[in-house]
Amino acid sequence: MNPELDLTLERVIRAPRAAVWSAWTDPSRFEKWWVPAPARCRVDRLEVRPGGAFVTRMSDDGVEFVPHLDATFLVVDELDRIVFTNAIDSAWRPANTIPVRMTAEITFSDHADGTDYRICVRHGDSAARARHEELGFADGWGSVATQLADIAENQVTR
Hints:
Blueprint: E1 6-13, H1 17-25, H2 27-30, E2 40-46, E3 53-59, E4 66-77, E5 81-85, E6 103-111, E7 114-122, H3 126-134, H4 137-157
Helix pairs in contact: 1-4
C-alpha cells in the first residue's frame, strides 16, 4: 500500500467468508450490490478467474443500462483474494479508461465477527488517486461495501 497512490477501505462483514465470496462471485447476487442504490446494476460477464471478463452496466431508472465497467480479473484466490483492473478491458486490450484507471485488490480473511473485508485500489499516479478520491471513492465504494454486507449477512440469517 502506497498512500500517495492508493485508496483503501476496510469493513467487518458479519457473515462467513464463504457468504461474502458467494455475493462477489454469483452474478445474480453481485448485481444487487455492485453500484450504489438507487442505481441498478446488470452483469454482462462475471468470469471470476484469472484472465476472466468483468463487465457491468448501470441504470438510474432500471430501464436504460449504460456501460459501467469493462475489466479483467488478474488474480483469483478462492475465498481469499480477487484482483481486477480496468486498464485492460474484457477482450484483453489496453483500455482508455474514464474517469480513472485502476487496479483493485479485494481481500477476505476470517474475523471474530465474520469476515475482514479489505479493498486497496491502486492508481498509476497521484493525480489519478486524487481524481478518484474527488469523485467520491469513500462514499461509492463504502456504500457498495455496506450493500455487500447486507446481502451476505442476510444469506446467513435465512
